[in-house]
């Protein structure tokens, strides 16, 4: 029994030492992903989802445009691959507290996903879903807003991007052009300006706190001491 306890203590100590390295090596880059609960038929970029629980995530494309993929919960099946464009905030518009914004349903069509605001970083902007031109015209007229679209005959894949257009509330089709909003100018006081001129520009600011690292080292030290004590007993 005593020999078994020693082996357990040594194994625990070795595992504690290896855990941080294992985490660093195997930690994936987390994409924007949200749980998409569907309680009634939902149109997502032209694919109608039936009631259930899905995962929605962003995948990056080589052409620079984002695509949304909708999966089942265990990621064994992809239900839809949908093109998106960045949601451009209108004057006075704020990021909503809800994750999803919808186009309303009517007698002929179910409601449709309009914008997704991911909770995971960056999370400070939305993704407007792009719809086939026929559906986009209905949305534009009903909501009295511009809707980005692609030709009804085109297909969205992970490698091909159809030409995008904008459908206006008058159901006319125009060329789509995305213009990023200008970055807000930082507010700098005169005192801060004088201070900044005295500092060097090649020093990078600290972007993370060392407190979590010290806390982890402390816990590891305590666990190691306990393990060594068991091994010597």
Please, could you describe this protein's structure?
- Strand 5 (66-72) and strand 6 form a beta hairpin.
- Strands 1, 2, 3, 4, 5, 6, 7, 8 and 9 form a nine-stranded mixed sheet that branches. A four-stranded mixed sheet has the order 10-11-12-13.
- It is globular.
- Helix 1 (2-26) packs antiparallel against helix 4 (211-232).
- The chain has a domain at 33-175.
- The chain starts with a helix and ends with a helix.
- The protein is α+β, with helices and mostly antiparallel strands and 233 residues long.
- The chain has four helices and 13 strands.
- It has helices at residues 2-26, 133-143, 190-197, 211-232, and strands spanning 33-38, 42-44, 47-49, 52-60, 66-72, 78-86, 100-103, 111-116, 127-129, 131-132, 147-150, 165-167, 173-175.
- Helix content is 28%, strand content 27%.
SSE ordering: HEEEEEEEEEEHEEEHH
Count of β-strands: 13
Radius of gyration: 26 Å
Low-confidence stretches: 7-30, 199-214
Beta fraction:
25-35%
Portion in helices? 25-40%
Mean pLDDT level: 74
Structural class by secondary-structure content: alpha+beta
Helix count, per DSSP? 4
Task: Write a compact overview of the structure shown.
The protein is an alpha+beta fold. The protein contains 4 helices and 13 strands.
How do the helices and strands line up, and which of them pair or pack?
Blueprint: H1 2-26, E1 33-38, E2 42-44, E3 47-49, E4 52-60, E5 66-72, E6 78-86, E7 100-103, E8 111-116, E9 127-129, E10 131-132, H2 133-143, E11 147-150, E12 165-167, E13 173-175, H3 190-197, H4 211-232
Parallel strand pairs: 2-8, 10-11
Antiparallel strand pairs: 1-4, 2-3, 4-5, 5-6, 6-9, 7-8, 8-9, 11-12, 12-13
